[in-house]
Structures are given as structure tokens and as C-alpha cells.
């Protein structure tokens, strides 16, 4: 890590924001075992309150929670503590949200289910290091799904407008959006 990207020396404060409580508890225990001082939040409101009270050196934030979007927590954390290292987690990974997360200051973006080793590696990686090529690159089905998700986000999650722009029947698009991402 270079001095500009490194959090304050010796500060191991870590905020975990996720509304999946069993996952949140498992990840919190695993990160404590790796030496982090962990604080958890199960909503956007609790995450924002935690950032306002004690901005952490590290954060792992879920993209979509019941009360809003994790990007709001990223933006607030960047205001309060620009040197923090933020990792975004999501079960709905797509390129458009990954780009937005990185523009707001996230250093990495992991798809759920991410394990503690992946999260730890992302939090502690050298920001100047080049990422290795993927072992299993995206399938053609996954690339198609990513493109549909990107257009859907650009259309502000309007199904009818997205279907029109993709030249696709609205019901077909709804079926695709209701399914999980292909591998």
C-alpha cells in the first residue's frame, strides 16, 4: 500500500453493513479472528449512524438492503474519512453498479456469497497491484445478463423502458430479471 491509500497506521476498525444477519454474524466473527475491531449494522440507517459516530478505516457494505442502497453509506464514509478502504458486496452483481461503487470510492466489489478469505484479501490487497486474470471468466449467458442489468439500471429500474430499449417483450424481461444471475 502506498501512503495515500493506506488507512491510519494501526487502525483496524471495520464496519460491516448487511441485512443478512447470519452472514453478518459469521463474517464479523471471521474478521475479528483476523485482527479487525468489528462493528456491525443491519440497515442503511444504522450504517450511516455508525459512520457519523466513528468513521472506520475499513468497511464491507452490501449493495441492497431493506431500507436503501449501500452506496449511500459509501458516499457518507468518503465524506467523513477519505482514506477508508471500502468493499461492496452484492447478490445482484452487475457492471453498472460496480462502476458506480468504484466511482464513489469502493476499492473492490465482490459477489455474494463471498467468504471471509475473499473479503480479507480484498481489504488488505495492494491497491497498485494488478489483479490476476479470472480462473473462470464469465459465460456468454452471464455477459448477456450483465448487459440487461446495466440497461435496467440506466433506465432507473423501469421494466417497460428497459424492454423497449433492448427490443424485448416486457414479460420476457420480467422473467429474466426475476431469476438469479447465471454463472
From TrEMBL:
Cited CDD domains: REC_RegA-like
SMART domains hit by this protein: REC
Domain Response regulatory per the UniProt entry, residue ranges: 13-127
Superkingdom of origin organism: Bacteria
InterPro entries: ActR_PrrA_rreg (IPR047772), Bact_response_regulator (IPR050595), CheY-like_superfamily (IPR011006), Sig_transdc_resp-reg_receiver (IPR001789)
BP term (GO), one: phosphorelay signal transduction system
UniProt keyword list: DNA-binding, Phosphoprotein, Transcription, Transcription regulation, Two-component regulatory system
Residue positions, PTM 4-aspartylphosphate: 62
GO terms for MF: DNA binding
Main function: Member of the two-component regulatory system ActS/ActR acting in acid tolerance. These data implicate that a two-component sensor may be involved in pH sensing and/or response.
Protein name per its UniProtKB record: Acid tolerance regulatory protein ActR
